[in-house]
Specification:
single chain, 613 residues, alpha/beta, N-terminal domain of TfIIb, Rossmann fold, Dimethylsulfoxide Reductase, domain 2, 4 domains, 7-stranded mixed sheet, binds iron/sulfur cluster, iron, oxidoreductase, Molybdopterin-dependent oxidoreductase
Length: 613
């Protein structure tokens, strides 16, 4: 960078990429973020950051940032003033108040808690609609339905600090190094320095599987619930279940025929994992959730929770279940209620509503459904059909390009507020630079709209936090000043009970490969695609095949291939190796062109054919 270290202004804040919630110090000068500064005294991670946190900040000062509002006139998006843009949006929402069911709103869990709280208040309270959701609905059901049913709270019973306090880690999926790299480092440290046992159940082999002593059980995609049910049955059959757990009889009946064979793994492996998990002094399950994992929903959270509860591995440090929300404020979005309750439409139903005309007004804060929701062709058609769409974002995303009004939003570096990590830690985000161009924070945007519609007015986001602390029970007693630099982990009162989880039988199609999606040092790409660091590490969309499948398909490393599902096709570069098992193809979903979500259908597993172009 082009400035002396000592000449930089330093601002402590929180990384805005993943749910790990690493703290960082931004080095800024002349309104630009020039670096992140390593500070070993900062955060649970002693200042360590992954590639995204360390080098992925360039998106903040990207010359592709939106710097002025845009309004569609004569079919084209044209620059407008804030007054014009907000007038258009508020008059549309004011009209929607008389027919709230025709209004829907999607927000990204990258916004601050304060922004998300205002978002919920504006749409639920002032406009009167419950058609509110985030991340295609995939990012929260494990918490809002799964964890609520199993533990009585919409949060993980475990914290990130429990990783290193455990004796045995049972990790679902093998790509923590790519989805939540600093948690990957924590696992690495625990395994190498403390001798923590590592067991992985995954549909492919990732970097984690190479750690010393790691034992990996590879299963067919979509078999996770069947596998956890088989583990529970084995615990019961081996006489290892703790006595007197609520729901034990119902669970016994539900898993009576949950054999290892049904999960597609060997009976010996199931028996061994069950025994080790039940016998460990402290055992912790690590479960990733998010848009890349359609099957990682409430049922899997229940199935995983059952194993922990059945073996007495909850309610003590180093044990339980850590549900790894994907984005920086996934947990906060749940805490602030950004999902449909009662009769409201979820994200998929909102898209359907746009397509069939029931949803006439759609407000999108930072989401990019065209790229990150399943079935791009369907989403694009629906968003082209909706009468009025407003998008606030940093960039003219594929979704913003279809909007009637586009509002330039601030990045995390240009605003203050709080994020809540996947470990329930509420942390201060601090403004480090002024807004880029005419951009406004989503707090300012939502506050202005709310006021124009007769809702509450806030002088600053701190006032919203005070209201959060008064109305969200988990945040009771928290103050922004009290969070200081280290933040605060909010407590959970667990009411653990066994909840039977139904395994859906995977239905492989002859001659097709099971498509596994996920992250490759990326999240939805909205920010990371504009960061040189992540783009250097992983520049192109790809499809990764097992050597045997590649040979059968006459595909070699680097070939252009077409991946075709029932809903469409994408062209990507082939990778060939042994990380993915036979019968499976892996592709990251975060790229605009070649995004594999273009062709997923929202089912647990999408089956595809792969052919050399
Ligand atoms: Fe940021 Fe997540 Fe990397 Fe930490 S692990 S630096 S929060 S992207």
């Amino acid at each position: 960078f082009k400035a002396r270290w000592w000449a930089l202004q330093k601002t402590k804040s929180v990384c805005s990429y993943c749910g790990t919630g690493c703290q960082l110090t931004l080095g800024t000068k002349d309104g630009k973020v020039l670096t992140t500064i390593y500070d070993e005294n900062q955060g649970f991670h002693n200042g360590q950051l992954c590639t995204r946190g360390r080098f992925g900040y360039q998106f903040v000062n990207s010359d592709k940032r939106l710097t002025a509002p845009l309004i569609r006139k004569n079919g084209k998006l044209q620059e407008a003033t804030w007054e014009e843009a907000l007038a258009e949006v508020t008059s549309r929402l004011a009209a929607g108040k008389s027919d709230p069911a025709s209004v829907a709103a999607l927000a990204t869990p990258r916004l601050t808690n304060e922004e998300l709280f205002l978002f919920g208040k504006l749409f639920r309270g002032t406009v009167g609609t419950d058609n509110i959701d985030h991340s295609a609905g995939y990012a929260h059901e494990a918490l809002t339905k799964g964890a609520v049913a199993s533990f009585g709270v919409a949060a993980s019973p475990a914290e990130i600090a429990d990783v290193q306090k455990s004796n045995l880690l049972l990790v679902v999926k093998s790509d923590a190094y790519e989805t939540h790299p600093v948690i990957g480092f924590e696992i690495n440290l625990g395994v190498k320095r403390k001798g923590i046992a590592l067991r992985i159940v995954s549909d492919k082999k990732g970097k984690l599987t190479r750690l010393p002593g790691a034992k990996t059980t590879v299963h067919a995609p979509g078999n996770e619930v069947a596998l956890f049910n088989a583990l529970c049955k084995s615990v019961i059959d081996q006489g290892l279940a703790v006595e007197g757990v609520a729901g034990l009889d119902a669970l016994k009946a539900a898993v009576a025929d949950a054999t290892a064979e049904k999960a597609g793994v060997s009976a010996e492996e199931i028996a061994a994992i069950a025994k080790e998990f039940a016998s460990a002094e402290k055992a912790l399950i690590i479960l990733p959730i998010g848009q890349g994992y359609p099957g990682h929903n409430a049922a899997l959270a229940n199935a995983a929770a059952n194993l922990a509860i059945l073996t007495g591995q909850v309610g003590k440090e180093g044990a339980g279940l850590l549900i790894m929300g994907e984005k920086n404020n996934s947990q906060g979005a749940v805490d602030m209620g950004i999902y449909p309750k009662g009769t409201g439409l979820n994200a998929a139903a909102i898209i359907d509503g746009c397509a069939n005309g029931n949803v006439k007004t759609l407000f999108v804060a930072g989401e990019n459904p065209v790229v990150s929701y399943p079935n791009r062709a369907k989403v694009e058609k629906a968003l082209e059909n909706v009468e009025f769409m407003v998008v606030s974002d940093l960039f003219l995303t594929e979704t913003a390009a279809l909007a009637d009004v586009v509002l330039p939003a601030c990045s995390f570096a240009e605003k203050s507020g709080t994020f809540t990590s996947l470990g329930r830690r509420v942390q201060n985000v601090r403004k480090a630079i002024p807004a880029i161009g005419l951009a406004k924070s989503d707090f300012e945007i939502l506050n202005a709209i709310s006021q124009a519609l007769g809702g509450a007015r806030y002088n600053n986001q701190g006032e919203v936090f005070t209201e959060i602390a008064a109305s969200v029970p988990a945040y009771k007693g928290l103050t922004q000043a009290g969070l200081k630099d280290e933040g605060a982990v909010y407590p959970v009162a667990l009411a653990a009970k066994l909840v039977p989880a139904a395994a859906k039988a995977a239905a492989p199609a002859a001659g097709k490969l099971a498509l596994v999606t996920g992250s490759a040092l990326y999240h939805c790409g909205t920010m990371s695609r504009f960061g040189e660091g992540p783009m250097y590490v992983c520049p192109d969309a790809y499809a990764e095949l097992n050597v045997a499948d590649a040979a059968a398909l006459k595909v070699e490393e680097g070939d252009q291939v077409t991946v075709t599902s029932g809903t469409g096709a994408v062209q990507v570069v082939a990778k060939v190796g042994k990380r993915v098992p036979q019968g499976v193809v892996f592709s990251p979903y975060h790229f605009g062109e070649g995004s594999v979500n273009t062709i997923t259908d929202g089912a647990e597993v999408t089956y595809v054919s792969v052919a050399k172009k």
